[in-house]
Amino acid sequence: MNTSALRAALQHAAVADPPEVPVYSPLRALGRRQLTPFDLAGQSMSTMAPATCMVFTALWMSSAGSRGVAGLCAIIGATLVMALVALCIRQFTVRLAASGSLYSFVAHGLGKRATLTAGAALLVGYLGVSVSVLSYAGADLAELVGNPDIPGAGILLCAGIGVAVALVAIRGVLFATRLILVIEVGTVALILAMLLRAPEPVAADLTVDPAPFGLLVFVAMQTVLNLAGFESAAFFGPEARRPLRTVTRTVLITPLLAGTLYIIAGWAGMSGHAGTLVNAYFGGTASGASPALVLLVNIGVCSSWIASTLGFAQAGSRLLYSMSLERVIPSLFEKVHPRWRTPYAAVGLFVGASFLGTLWHTPGHAPGVYDAVVEITLLLGYTLVAFAALRFLHRIGEHTTATRITGVAAAVAGSGLLLFAAADATRSGAWLYLAWCAALGVSGIVWFAVLRRYRPRSIDAIGVFDSVETEDLLPGAASLRIDAGGRTVLTPPGR
Question: What pTM does this model have?
Answer without folding.
Answer: 0.90
